[in-house]
Description:
The protein is of the alpha/beta class. 43% of the residues lie in helices and 14% in strands. It is built from nine helices and five strands. The longest helix is centred in the middle third of the chain and has 15 residues, at 106-120. The model is unreliable at 65-75 and 122-129 (pLDDT under 50).
Amino acid sequence: MPVKKYKIVLIEPSQMVAIGLKSMIETNPQFLVIASLTDLAKYNEFQHGTADIIILNPMVVKNTTSNLQSVVPVRGNAVYIAITYGPYNESELHQYDGFIGIYNSAAQICKRLQAALDSVSDKPKQDNGNELSVREQEILTAVAKGKSNKEIADEFNLSIHTVITHRKNISHKLGINSISGLTIYAIINKLIDVTDF
């Protein structure tokens, strides 16, 4: 029986790190890096199908937004993995489904990728029949721009409880539970533009 191949998009500005990471990941026949991109704008132009895993350097996101909590990754039901280069701020990484470090071995990296895939396998998948309402699109855009629940409530003259309910509905409809995933969804679906940051 053939091994399922998980498609990976790597977003890393350092060519040296990207080449090394791709080489290490592909030691496992279960994983295939289908694209290695240097920034989010290039990801936006990427049209080679849906990735199962998006691995990215969190600095790519920080360089596009003033809000450090609006960290990204991507399309559909992809798993988002951060690359760490040393000590990391846990509050930034909580938005990802997992992380890998540059000092991890190939086996450790593949194990972490599989663990992240396993951890989200029970989450609801994106249902294309559940389109976002206009209000939900507005809330999603505000979330992607890094606004807090209170700021969103004030902007749209809603209660914080209503904003939280909208956010839960958005996450349920899209099957995306991280701010970074919602941000990438908004960028890819042209609700916001990378230049908006």
